[in-house]
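Morning run. Coffee first, then this:
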Amino acid sequence: HDYEGIKKYQLNPNLSYRLDYYDQIVRDVFHKFLANHPDSVYASNVTARIAQWEAERNLVAAGKMKFHGQWLPAAEGMRLAERERGQQLLQLSRRLISQGRLETALQQLEQVLSLSTQPDLVSQARTLLPSAFQRTISSLDQQRQQLETEVASAQQAVDRAQQAVNTAESAQKQTQI
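And here it is:
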């Protein structure tokens, strides 16, 4: 039963983990299993997994990062990951703008603008901003016009109600005379 619990701890073939995560899993999962079940038929499998996790941990400790299954210097991997994330955010922003979800689109674009190592993506985000702002202004203008119409309608209803009250008060006064 305990072995079933540790089977879920697998190395990711595409991405590496934080250094402390490797240490935590080796210590708190694999070594704990071996301490509790030293004669288990799975002991050799767990020992092999410890070796795999420690080998990958050592690559991370040496400044490497796994990105899409390739080991790269961490700085390069981070730059590529940031670029991929920025491209995803731009794509999402475009879709949100076309759907009229402008506030969320602007939030995504703000994230892209903060990617200092990706000037071309920042430039693309800057070109999308006027479009998003223009659509936001248009949307707000439509809402303003609709509210003005609703206010005018409500004012007319209030005026009619006041006229009815005035008429009723006049009629009441005449019946009292």
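DSSP finds six helices and two strands in the chain. Good start to the day.
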